């Protein structure tokens, strides 16, 4: 376990298990729902990385040029390839100390060949991370990045964010079309929601009785947000992502967040900052 502390922030990550967060706290209060010793895959707690794609790919079908690749279908009942490959593989801690760390990962799985660099910083003024994915292969390839935090849903929780559109989905949580949406502004209608929002302005808040978490995202995370709030678990997921789910198979939705085709040596970058009010 990699433990970091800076200011009132404390984090614990599991480099050997996809560099998942086991905990993230501020002044002793849980920001993420802790894993409490449970595995990061299959537990609604902590946080994990989504790459080289985010959310779902229908049937694992991934077309690149004239060839169609088949990705592992790990959401078996729905028949989707879910949340990428990175969380299933270990990361290397290049350096760590106090409130700072640098982790890397290198992975090859057709059609992907990539290197990832993750920098974390915990300080009095906030928690920040920068995730950079580079195509290290010899061919151009569509790729995507995302972060999947399970924020603790405590009494008084209310998410707030602005957007321009929300994806209407089928019973397999795959997008069908975009409809206008202003986002969410508290209330109670969000509980039980699992949806994708486009035209996000990169800022979201989760207000609780004890504190408010403010998220500010930039780079390739500045326009799309996946939101998930299962009624049966005390969590809220505000997931900055670089593309619409399954957009590789749904070109009509590309204007709302396409996967970027990275030439060899090109990169995707997501930046994120969390601050606490209260």
TrEMBL record:
InterPro entries for the chain: Aldose_1/G6P_1-epimerase (IPR008183), Gal_mutarotase_sf_dom (IPR011013), GH-type_carb-bd (IPR014718)
Q: What is this protein called?
A: Aldose epimerase
- Source species, domain of life: Bacteria
**Matching SUPFAM superfamilies:** Galactose mutarotase-like
TM region(s), chain numbering: none
Q: Which Pfam families match?
A: Aldose_epim
